[in-house]
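Give me the fold.
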Amino acid sequence: MIVFYKTNGARLATLEVFDDFFTTVSLYGVPLCMPSAPGTHIIMDKVRYSTTPHQAISLIEADYHEFAFERHYHLDFHLGLITQGQQRFLHQGTHHNVGHGELVIMPPDELHDGRSLLDSGYQVRVFAIEPEWFHQTLELSKPSDVMSFDRLIVSDQQVFASLTQLHQKLAQPDLCQLAKDCLPYEGFSGLVSRYGAIKEKDAVALGTQSLATLKEYLLANLDQAVRLEQLATLCNLTPTQLQRHFKARTGMTPYAWLTRLRLEQGMKLVKAGLPGTDVAHQVGFYDQAHFTKAFKHTYGVSPSAVNSH
């Protein structure tokens, strides 16, 4: 039980916890909700991260009510199937609402946020797919070619049903090897053929360099104390110019962008099965405790809760 007191010492509220879930809340001794019986819980955010037999593809299954995503980006494609409720998100200055039966396609490196539009929350199944998987699977000839889609939100019952089935199957631990090999290509073929296209990756300029070059440099130095002057010199800019140009190009400060990069790379290493202590040091956190706190704040779960097959 957690007890909150007023400054005069009088009891203000109590919060009872069962299995990490809030079960009883009272104010001035009056219950604000009924205690939940063992095995039942008040509505809370629930999220499950898991890997698949394909290292480049991982899964998320979530039931969000209170958790709101701050502005962020991913290193991977995130394909989100809204299975219940509605989500609202901001992308490139425009607010979007997406609901049951719709698919959200969020490309790598694009800034966005997200929250529930309704008090009842929303449920979502997400594929996190490394861009290289599309490049290899579609046998793209040029390194600069990338997979792209012609819309952010897809309303297509057939594609939605196919991807939902794929998500469920990839979560099964007892798939035969041939099914593991064939299912992703088969499952994503409808989406790619109807809404996909191959294009040359756009270079985001930062002085004499590009954002991609800067990302490569930072990924190689995540465990180092990177200074603004270093990045500015790399781009042939002054520190002030770099900050201004970086914010204009990405929508984030260099520090916030680097923090997200560390967490995204940390998630990748966690999925690969590396111990939390090793991951924390490899991506530049002071210790495992600091990494775990930032990870849970960002993804809604601790690193140890990211499951592997």
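Residues 205-301 form a domain with the Arc Repressor Mutant, subunit A fold (CATH 1.10.10.60).
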